[in-house]
Amino acid sequence: MTELKLASRKSRVFAFIIDHFIISFIVVVPFTFFLINEGLNNNLVFRGFWIGLFVAFVLYSFKDSYKGASIGKSIIGIGVRDEENKDEVPSKTRLFLRNLILIIWPVELIVFAVNKDKQRIGDNLANSVVVQVRKLSLWKTIVVVFFIVILTFMLFISSIVLFMKNSEAYNTAITYIENDEYIIRETGGIEGYGYLPTGNIQIADGFGESKFAINIKGEDHDLYVEIYLTKKPQQDWVVEDMYY
User: What would the pLDDT profile of 101-125 be if each residue is shown by its tens digit?
Assistant: First the structure.
């Protein structure tokens, strides 16, 4: 059996970037949507920060639990193995211990950069090494990373659109539009709305401001409108102005 070689530092960095991208997406996106929907206040931000930090910590700690390889490692073709027997995957406890040390990642990075066996502190504690399980060309790696970034970006944009269209501010704007006689007359009747509305929603201490640019699909003509809304504590959103 061919002995598995140690993974290069470059491949491990690539794998870490992919993992970081995925974990950040899982943690940041839902938290951001929750904040926008519930309103921005110091207590909520403080609690959300620590919850997000805890979730990220758990995900990082257990990311190599399946067959010794995180999503990033699996894509790049590397995996964690026992230091003495490179064909054996360490136990889940050892894999957890190995990643637990990532909490001091600056120190881990320095140790990883200078260690001749490309081990970080977590590897030494878990008696593990990272090996090249299968070969993956540089170009394939670049293509994989590129598609992951594009996919993540598309998911992020889709999530923002989904959130915006389900927000109270947007629904208030749509209700106002559908009851506006001028819009009904100009469009000949509303059939739908553009997939990508633009705008922003800002809420702080119960006060809110929101502005949307919406493309209205009409039976006869389409119409582009900008609508501005405000909100006071314990009250609903109110349309302040609309431009055709």
Answer: 888 888 988 998 898 888 999 999 9
Spacing of C-alpha 230 from chain mean position: 29
Measuring CA to CA, how many Å separate 31 from each of 50, 100, 140, 157? 11, 23, 33, 15
Examine the domain organization and report whether 16 and 51 are in the same domain: yes
Cα dihedral 162, 168, 170, 172 sign: positive
For 67, the domain range is 9-162
Residue at which a domain ends, from 162, 179, 205: 162
Q: Rg of the Cα trace of the chain?
A: 25
Which residues face 198 on adjacent strands? 213
Alpha carbon distance 24, 77 (integer Å):
22
Instruction: Give the whole-number percent of the chain exceeding pLDDT 90.
Output: 41
Q: For the whole prediction, is pTM greater than 0.90?
A: no
Indicate whether 34 pLDDT > 70.
no
Q: Are residues 24 and 86 in the same domain?
A: yes
The answer on 13 and 112 residing in a single domain is yes
| Same domain for 211 and 111 | no
Q: What is the DSSP string of 145-165?
A: HHHHHHHHHHHHHHHHHHHHH
